[in-house]
Amino acid sequence: MHTNYYFLRQLAPALTERLRGFRVAVCFTQEKDELVVGLSNGSQEFWLKAQLGATFPALALPETFQRARANSVDLFPALLGEQVESVAVWPQDRVLQVNFRSGARLVFKLYGPRPNAIFRTAPDAPAQLFQQKLLADADLKPQPAASPAPQSSESAQSVQSAESAVQKLPPPLADLPLRYLRTQGYDQALPDARTRLVNQVLAQLEKPAHYYIIQFEGRTRLSLLPLGDMLETLPGDDPVGALRRFVPMALGRRALEMETKQLRQLLERRADEASTAAEHARRRLHALAHEAGYRHTADLIMAHLHEIPARAEQIEVLDFYTNQPKTIKLKPNEKPQLTAENLYRKGKNQQIEERQLTERIARREAEAFTALERLEEMDSQPQLAELRGLRAWRKLHGLDPAATAAKTSGELPFKVFEDRGFTILVGRSAENNDLLTQKYAHKDDLWLHAKDVAGSHVVIRHRAGQTVPEPVIEHAAMLAGWYSKRQHDTLCPVTVTPKKFVRKPRGARPGQVLVERERVVLVKPGNPFDRDEDK
């Protein structure tokens, strides 16, 4: 890339030729992690802009630069007026050093995660740091030059020496040469052929014929080797021109690359989550289909009702479904008819659960399929290679960040019902009730709860300018009774009040609140939204 040693060793002499005799006219920053140095020889100017953020460290060389009138801060005042003597690269490192005739030094450390600029008025003077939190950079010094890489392919060299030569490539460029070697058959080659390939690559790196702007693994990169998708091919004798072309292009494409990556991760996550949810629902449905149902047991109790003695704790009967004996547990203080009635009710709920599981499997499988389809479209549609096209496509399919955030916020952790355009939310547990009432409910929402017993908090969301119709309140009250200890009562009193009159005392248990003002409605507990419940 643009910060590797092999590129910097081409850039350093080119900058020396351009800048020798130039003096520093300005040194300032006006953007976070950006250092701008302006140089002049009296008739020409040269701008050097170091971007020292961890996400994209770069040395940009804009042909012109306009300093902002505001939010601009001068840096390294002792650097002003210094005259350039030479520009050098540290051996086998991602560090470029500007040497001044007075002995001052300006070092650009272009390490990916921790870039920095270090200025010294003399070789032994204290260091002044651009990124002052990187205190260790004050002691940064060039490392001794590595021994030269092998330049011949004598038979004495082994596989180990060839691989060692590859491993000596500097870290910031190591991935591209290794990938390039593999495209040239390095992994399958014999030892002598491997050594020859390594030497050929090193020769290309040391004196490149071209610079390549490439698209590689979703990133725009500057390469000294032809690899990936070629965007542009630039002359190998003009590293300054290559850098001037590459950095603006990379910055311009960076938004596209980041949004493409985020969008791909979003779709992959959706496909994975939907597939996992469908599998869990499928397992639960399979378990329900292969276990003895409540209705089955209730039928056996009613069929053998005359055989059940009073206050029996269990009874053994012949199961006419399987023709096998079956033991049924009973409650001694409950009539068998009531036990059967409760089992029939549970059986009805089980049927509802089975239907909902079937619907959930179909819905989640469709979501996974849609996400995978979108991923395929991202790889096949040419217009998505441009930022404008990607954003339009993302918005068309409801994948833009605003829509995604809205959808996420709409996927609430409560039971959700819709009635005449109003949303009804039902808490699932004591802690979930607190979350609903204290965090999600607005002061103008209607709050409902079965009176004087434990149960779910119920909230009817307020709609601006609209009064909640009585049928909606009645249905919400039925839910409040159904999801409470009064579920089996004939009639249930339910508290109805605006949420602003509900408060949680200090030290109260989860789900416990005080109601300051209320009205009470009487309803029959039930769920009028059997088919719509989202469990």
UniProtKB/TrEMBL annotation:
<dbReference type="InterPro" id="IPR008532">
    <property type="entry name" value="NFACT_RNA-bd"/>
</dbReference>
<feature type="domain" description="NFACT RNA-binding">
    <location>
        <begin position="418"/>
        <end position="514"/>
    </location>
</feature>
<feature type="compositionally biased region" description="Low complexity">
    <location>
        <begin position="142"/>
        <end position="167"/>
    </location>
</feature>
<feature type="region of interest" description="Disordered">
    <location>
        <begin position="141"/>
        <end position="167"/>
    </location>
</feature>
<dbReference type="InterPro" id="IPR051608">
    <property type="entry name" value="RQC_Subunit_NEMF"/>
</dbReference>
<protein>
    <submittedName>
        <fullName>NFACT RNA binding domain-containing protein</fullName>
    </submittedName>
</protein>
<dbReference type="Pfam" id="PF05833">
    <property type="entry name" value="NFACT_N"/>
</dbReference>
<dbReference type="Pfam" id="PF05670">
    <property type="entry name" value="NFACT-R_1"/>
</dbReference>
